[in-house]
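Researcher: Let's try something more involved. This one mixes different molecule types, so please make sure each is placed in the same coordinate frame as the others.
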Amino acid sequence: MIAAYLEIRDGKIKKSSFEALSEARRRADELGSGTAAVLAGPAVADLAPAAFAAGASKVYLIENPELAGYSAQGYALALAGFVAEAKPAALFFAATAMGKDLAPRVAARLGAALASDCTKVAVKDGTLEFTRPIYAGKAFLSVRLKSSPQLATLRPNVFPVVEAAGASGETVKVEVAIPEGAVKGRVVDVLKEESAELDVTEADVVVSGGRGLKGPEAFALLRDLAAVFPRAAVGASRSAVDSGWIGHQHQVGQTGKTVSPELYVAIGISGAIQHLAGMSSSKFIVAVNKDLEAPIFKVADYGIAGDLFEIVPKLTEEFKKALKD
Amino acid sequence: MNMLVFVKRVPDTESRIRIQHESRTIAEEGLNFVISPYDEYAVEEALRLKESKGGTVRVVSVGRDEAAVVLRKCLAMGADEALLVKDDSPESFDGLRTARIIARAVESKLAGADLLLFGKQSVGADNSQVPAMVAELLGLPQAAVVTKLEVEAGTATALREIEGGTEKVVLALPAVVSAQKGLNEPRYETLKGIMAAKKKPIPVVTLQELGFGPGEPASQVETTGIDMPAARQAGKILQGDPAETVRELVRLLRDEAKVI
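Model: All components are placed in one shared frame. Result:
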């Protein structure tokens, strides 16, 4: 059985967790085994139907009042308890902030290796092979894990979601003891960004700005453009971030985030190697830059050589029209 | 406050990566090696905590002799002591292997720390595994990807980055914290610091001295391939009247790429 841990935020299962579950389902089908979803929290039974609808044949529920606030220690105990009881061949997580926090902790507890931030999972000779970017995507490493269960985090926005509306299956309750004093650190508050923006790693469209913007003000033009799309976010190059024009959480590239949206729009970004590493797995790349020789044009599917201050507002209007049709 | 900071020597982010296909490794020739950028934020944070609360900052690296260069940089920034845990094995991409070495080193050589600081990931392996694994192996709480840290009376309060916001995490010390960009602005070494660092010894401890047998700890990750990303073809670059190029671009995205 291949299992996926489903992360819950604001009472809902995250899209990237459904992606991980869907990939678990595809590989389990290939191996002729079952697919399980794991839900953990103080009360999570209500979310089981959503897990069945995304491909799970079995849903494990770990309910414990100690899991009311997220703690890496408490949740690692819960998932290790699930592994001990269900003995899955593999357990996938979404490579989100929580997944990256939790999966290594679970791995250390189980003494098993972990493949981080995978962009491909394949079955070879009856075992799983994981492919993941290294050097922020300048190279791709394929690995097999010699430990059990096979543990992996899967990069958001890469794996398609299975839909099996109305499907149902067996739910199994797992009792996990979380002894008093076992949790020595926990999340006490979640602070949303004021604009409640989507993270660049989760967006379908990323509109990024660089040095060519000449200052923080022009990011308003990019925000207007991003606002045209339903799941879009604003990104930035390292030089824009280091100049203090926008927060570092927007940075795309080797010391920022690696993104793979449907559409990446690079505006006033020349395309330094460490930026290209972070975005070249985007499905389509559009560049707007006044310098026809800029390296970004060598990776862009489409581009406009010209003045961004003139082009971006026009692009916003034209996209609005196109999306209305 | 006694602090341990774990640092790694990595190729700088401007590096072009070349693959040696037979050995399934990255070619090191011609690469410029630096301290992993996120580790630098961890060192800076430890130095600031030392300045405000007193205590010591010890820096530790697991790696070959060359890792002494990054340890010396940390000494020049102001760290008190350094330790090189000598590990000549090639990059395994197995975070648990590294975490086991670090946990053993902490237990046997570096006891009594209040705070263990790491970069959120090493640039290159990009695993983001070791800090949380060390925390689990040592039974300590953790806050990863931290952009703000306050320490008061046996408790650390950290802000950590999550999708579209931040989480506030409260940890009982001793604890593990991993640093994200934005935590601080690392200082440059001073000439005086560089001179002083040259005179400081960098003790070396071997895996054998940590109690590991030959070939231990073994990597549980087997590399089956290493490849360059699929090369992207340069596409259509439009020039001319802005209104026309914009119309044409949107048409191409809709009719040719079918992305909107």
